[in-house]
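2024-03-11 09:14:02 INFO worker-7 job=invfold-0412 stage=load source=structure_tokens
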């Protein structure tokens, strides 16, 4: 009997290891395929397809040597763009306050969490910025993990609603003024659909989580799941207050305006007359085009950013520079801000890189 038990345990351990290896291998394959798809999409920023006698061929949009030599000339907009990107964590911490149930952790704790979340989002594959920020607030400010995560998702939804509203207004203005911005219309419809889906999803979770938690508690099953569901409902409690929701959408305009102003400065440098209008349209296009899950986000960013800039009258060379430099500057700024915050608070970035394991360790206690 003992030998059979040992054999069963060994078989389970072996199967568990095989399953883990398969999951890791599948994850690396997915990351590799996503990276290849992003590179393929981004290539259309620098190349175009033309018909020839022999069929289709890729043709360079411009001379790469001259284009690379011209990149330093974009510093007049790159520097203020970096400053505006650096302000996003601070303004998003203000939006988060409208979503957290009282008493909410202070602004410094929220800024700390969002800055490190942005660091993880840009340094680690998998889009783990939101769970990383929630885990940091849980770890350093004592907020229950499920409360921090659900409230941050609500804050993201409020900022997203502000972005959709701004993009819709600017698209109407652009239509009235006959300002071309081809990709914005399609992206706007995708954003409106995503906003409806996200809103319904969070509303359903808020309504159903307490019901499911109560049933589990009555039956004495899955106590941790029950406690987590109650914490999630507490994190979404702000959704019942129209005043706080409107305040969150109003504050959500701050990061939207800051990011739009960054793109507007770039378009002004490139000679676009309606640069303020174009900056908001460009931000809306690049953000809303990435809401569909499963698509190569980086490649989409390059295609939509350069395509919208060209629709606004920017030539191929500066449009490609805008896509490349805004992408690199955005990533580097978040890494610098997050790294500085980590050093100031003595955070171990290694723990953030191992986020999946860290999130599983702490037990989610039910809120009082």
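2024-03-11 09:14:09 INFO worker-7 stage=emit residues=368
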């Amino acid at each position: 009997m003992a030998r059979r038990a040992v054999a069963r345990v060994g078989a389970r351990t072996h199967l568990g290891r095989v399953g883990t290896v398969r999951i890791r291998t599948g994850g690396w394959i997915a990351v590799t395929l996503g990276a290849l798809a992003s590179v393929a999409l981004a290539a259309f920023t620098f190349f175009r397809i033309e018909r020839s006698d022999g069929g289709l061929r890729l043709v360079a949009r411009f001379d790469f040597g001259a284009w690379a030599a011209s990149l330093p000339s974009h510093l007049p907009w790159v520097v203020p763009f970096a400053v505006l990107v650096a302000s996003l964590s601070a303004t998003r911490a203000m939006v988060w306050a409208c979503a957290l149930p009282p008493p909410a952790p202070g602004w410094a704790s929220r800024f700390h969490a969002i800055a490190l979340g942005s660091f993880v989002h840009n340094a680690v594959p998998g889009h783990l910025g939101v769970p990383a920020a929630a885990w940091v607030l849980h770890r350093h400010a004592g907020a229950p993990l499920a409360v921090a995560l659900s409230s941050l998702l609500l804050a993201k939804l409020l900022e997203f609603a502000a972005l959709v509203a701004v993009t819709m207004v600017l698209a109407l203005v652009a239509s009235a003024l006959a300002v071309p911005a081809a990709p914005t219309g399609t992206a706007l419809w995708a954003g409106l659909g995503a906003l409806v889906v996200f809103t319904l999803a969070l509303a359903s979770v808020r309504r159903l989580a307490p019901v499911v938690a109560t049933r589990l508690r009555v039956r004495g099953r899955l106590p941790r799941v029950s406690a987590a569901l109650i914490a999630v409902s507490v994190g979404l409690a702000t959704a019942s207050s129209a005043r706080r929701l409107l305040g969150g959408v109003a504050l959500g305009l701050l990061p939207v305006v800051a990011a739009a102003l960054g793109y507007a400065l770039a378009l002004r440098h490139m000679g676009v007359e309606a640069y303020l209008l174009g900056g908001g349209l460009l931000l809306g296009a690049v953000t809303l085009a990435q809401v569909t899950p499963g698509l190569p986000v980086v490649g989409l960013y390059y295609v939509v950013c350069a395509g919208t800039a060209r629709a606004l009258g920017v030539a191929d060379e500066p449009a490609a520079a805008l896509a490349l430099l805004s992408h690199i500057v955005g990533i580097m700024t978040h890494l610098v801000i997050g790294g500085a915050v980590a050093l100031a608070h003595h955070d171990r970035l290694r723990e953030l890189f191992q986020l999946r394991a860290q999130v599983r360790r702490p037990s989610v206690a039910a809120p009082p």
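2024-03-11 09:14:09 INFO worker-7 stage=report msg="The two ends are 48 Å apart (CA to CA)."
2024-03-11 09:14:10 INFO worker-7 job finished
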